[in-house]
Design goal:
The structure is a single chain. By secondary structure, the chain is mostly helical. Helix content is 78%, strand content 0%. The chain is built from 24 helices and no strands. It is globular and about 95 Å long.
Length: 759
Amino acid sequence: MESIYLIIVIILLGLAVLDLVVGVSNDAVNFLNSSIGSKVAPLWAIFAVASVGILLGTMFSSGMMEIARSGVFYPEKFTFPAIMILLLAVMLTDVILLDLFNTFGLPTSTTVSLVFELLGAAVAVTLFTLWTTDSNEQLGDYINSGKALAIISGIFTSIAIAFIVGSLIMYISRLIFSFKYKRSFKFLGALWGGLALTAITYFAVFKGLKGSVLVSDSLITFLDNNMSTALLYTLGGWTVIMGILQHLFRVNILRVIVLAGTAALAMAFAGNDLVNFIGVFMAGLDSFKIAQGVAASGGDINTLYMDRLSEPVVANVGWLIGAGVIMVLALVFSKKSRSVSATELNLSRKGEGLEKFSSSPLSRSIVRGSLIVGKSIGSFTPTPIKKFIDNRFEPVDLENKASYDLIRASINLTVSALLISLGTSLKLPLSTTFVTFMVAMGTSLADRAWGRESAVYRINGVLTVVAGWLMTALVAFTAALIVGLFLMWGGKIAIFLMMAVVAFMLFKSGRLHTKRENKELSQQKVLSSKDQLINSCNDEVHIVMDKTISVFKRVIDGLKEENRKSVKKAMAEANELYSRYKDKRDYEVVPTLESIQLNALELEQEYVQLVDYSYEITKSLKAITESTFTYIDNNHAAFSKEQIDDLKTIFNTLTEVYIGYIKMEKTNDYSNFDQVLNLRLTILDLYAKMTKRQIKRVKEGVSNTRSSILFLNLVNESKIVTLQSGNLMKTHRNFKLQAAKSGGNYVDSQSLIKNATLN
């Protein structure tokens, strides 16, 4: 047998390991978010509980392995070489696709990815086979369309079911317990815990045993025949245990329920989704063993049809345990899983704050429609009932700034575990991401977490994620189809080229994720003390001055030498600076004012103005660099010596203003501050003179249209930079004088002075 097939099996194993890593990074959101969002325990404890659940869940996944082998195509129609290419195309596509979604922090469905990749790759291999042979068969003879449609419809039906069930149970539970649940929970807590843990036990253990490699058929038959009795004993036992823990040992049993739910959901995830990561490799390994046996007996593997893949499969325990260990390691060490988790927590948290998504016409229409319906229902609802409901939903401040309370966390986990485990027991590849995400969104809606200030953003976020899922199906099918055709056409060379593409994509996505993560961290920056406020403002003023001089210098050098590279660097620097201060204005200012406890209204006012003036300066720098780059990039005529000299004059005068101010600041002597402002007036006078000189050049025909337009724009934006710089320095002087007793760090101005020379 050719060695290429052994190489393919090894590649499938490597890709399966990668798939486990990127898949868990995406799906960790499914079972971690409720514990993390409610801050039920330290992070290490949450990870430990989830890890135990994953390791146990891997033992329950054997029954799902058949999906990757015969779920959407008829294996008896494919030869051994074709089936190996089909499986390789699926794994190559899956690794790239899941990693891209993780990089952008969007939860996607690994199950949807797998099903549509299998479908796309099967179609590719079938089409290539039909094109290159004289077979009279059709595409439908190879594709199990009925099974594929059943799987797909089940996956997408789970969206509505999860959302509705989560909403109803959350609404009823909040009516029973309210947000002030501690009093009522004393009486109903043990029963609540008993019901929740019984439901988790039934679906995650009793039902999951049917797919396990650890139990015999006789035990499964016994459980089926005595399920009612087993459930009754389980309910009684859990209720008694919860009552003892709550009343004798004073344990907060909601924490026990949430942690148990985390373990159960992790277990259900591993049981249902492990096939998504290693099922294709297992199918490839079994195919290789079958072909190896045929080759050993002298058979021709090129004409070997893989009908044996349709037989029931029992996965090797060693492979399952190994996959579980890799999943646990990926869960603990993956940074991308934090990005995916942050998306769901942001959409489901209680209260206002930074919204990750913008609004859209559809989300605004939904909110308007909901308000109209709500008012209509409220118009005929008796006042006592409305007061009772409003009282039950009256929010309270959550401990440790949690995203939501333990009641909602327990419902998220319990309902999700029930639905996922039910699907696993019926051998339906439910999407764990669909179920857990939509349950979380349903409970958020029912819990009134989406207020008037956040509803349009949250709804648009949900729509964006759901649309991403739908796009996943289309992209997965198309990508697997293309990869499959390429592999069938290119053979061994195509295999190694695709491996290089995967390596390159993983490298680039890693760098992109780091960049996005750093940007998001900067957006989440909140100053929490007076000293931080003072030091930050001092630093930022010097950054603005330093970067302004640097950008101006690059622009003038670029125009003088017609240096496209210099102006491009200036544009990148200006855009980065603009984004920095736009983010500060949008995401830092108000949260900082809310978090800092100061009795210094004027100091806070100066802080707001410092950010605003910095933003206005960077906006003008952005306009200057973009218009200049467009001019040079289009290869227009060079600026004349007179135009360059005029721009240099503005630059040198502005630099003199900055250096004069920094010297005053360094000595804390602002007695000559009027001289700085007079230099600013000098630049404003220069603006008028330079405009007249340019008009004269136009009249004399020594300056063409495009250079005249750019020059006037540059001078005008320079005037704005000058005015806003004067405002910035004046405000910073007032800020420092008012905060003098608190002190502040001084940033050395050598970099500014270094950039200040332009001949």
